[in-house]
Design brief:
Elements (H helix, E strand, L loop, with lengths): L21 H9 L9 H14 L3 E7 L3 E8 L10 E3 L6 H5 L5 E3 L21 E8 L5 E9 L7 H29 L5 H9 L13 E7 L7 E11 L2 E12 L1 H18 L5 H15 L6 E11 L2 E9 L4 E4 L5 E4 L2 E2 L13 E5 L4 E5 L1 H4 L16 H10 L6 H16 L7 E7 L8
Parallel strand pairs: 11-14
Antiparallel strand pairs: 1-2, 1-6, 2-3, 4-5, 5-6, 7-17, 8-9, 9-10, 10-11, 11-15, 12-13, 12-16, 16-17
Amino acid sequence: MQGVAFRGGLRADGLPAALDDPRRLAAVAATGLLDTGPEPEFEDLAALAGAVTGCSRAFITLVDERRSFWKSCVGVDITEIAGRQNPVRDSFCYFLVGLDGEPFAVEDAAADPRTRDHPSVQPMKIGAWAGYPILGPGGEVLGSMCVIDDRPHAWRPTELATLATLARAVGNEINLRTSLETARTALAATTDLVRSLQDSFLPSVLPTVSGLDAAASYTPADGGMVVGDFYDLFQARGPWWCATMGDVCGKGPEAAKVTALARYTLRAQATQHLSPAVVLDHLNSALLDQRKDGRFLTAVHATFRTTATGVSGRLCTAGHPPALILRADGRVQESGRRGSLLGVLPDVRLTDVRFRLAPGDTLLLYTDGATEARPRPIVPGAPRPLFGEENLAAALAACHGMDAPSIVRRIGRVLDDHSGGWASDDTALLALRVPPRAAGR
């Protein structure tokens, strides 16, 4: 451990004192996952970590004061390992605990002064190791998402970014379970808990994309159930960015789990593939592997980059409404070829469609809560007209000249006026606009 400064010092046995932190140990125990068997949710994420990095071994671990327990392990014959665990001294995971949640990676474990004397380098044939912390609701280090390469490995930034994303996905799955169990114990889920679960699927603040004006909104359905709409805007790699939106069939905790799987699978795959159709195809495979009570989802995924003349990109829709483009001259056009639903069949029909945004143009992604908005039922059998695709296009056309936040607010008000302030389904909107001032840059 030469050259490693552990926060909080060391125990008498030379390991990080943070391993014995009572608050951390309570959070690990509260997961209820110690000494439990494999589960598809975690097995899939570990397998994805191994596949993305090209490593033969991948682990999801929980670490208490004396051992590293393997909740999931890929590439290891667990019949030869008693209890799916090893002593904490023999695990690299204590580095993450001692570093208070910082990631830890070595490219040549036998040569790196921090690990060359570690007791597991030779017996476990560790050529390289990379891990990211799995965090509890209070920031406690529960364990790690890590991969092992048999040979030295120069970790690429995209590999490490994917590991970080997958570690967050594991933490969200664990924290979601803990939250739901707390709600069951209390006999009822409160509105605040429901909203916090839904909000965990949405970025708290959209990132800033140079040369682009972005805004989003999410209006929950009446009734207080956890449902499955989500959106995201993130940098994939280099100059490439991704905008994505999805709608999971159904409501409740199971729909929420599918939403979490979808969002983090999309982020992980987008770092590897620039084709939206390929990314959605991988998501379809992940959904089929999970088999969440036959639940499916619709999605639209776009990969784009800003240019001197605006935005250039491709998008793909999977059972999802087409995107709308508001041109600078006020025209509204559809973009995207409606493809197959995801999570139903192994062979899906998905097509990338190119799009360009010039200065003043806006791309609008939305869920069907917008087109299917209807008034609250008051009199049985009374007409309740859907808002519809034509009205949505007209509402967008009326936003000519507005910036992205104003467009999202204006469409939200129009939908609210149509439904009388009542929402039968979640509604998500995401607008990306090239400001007129971008011309000539």
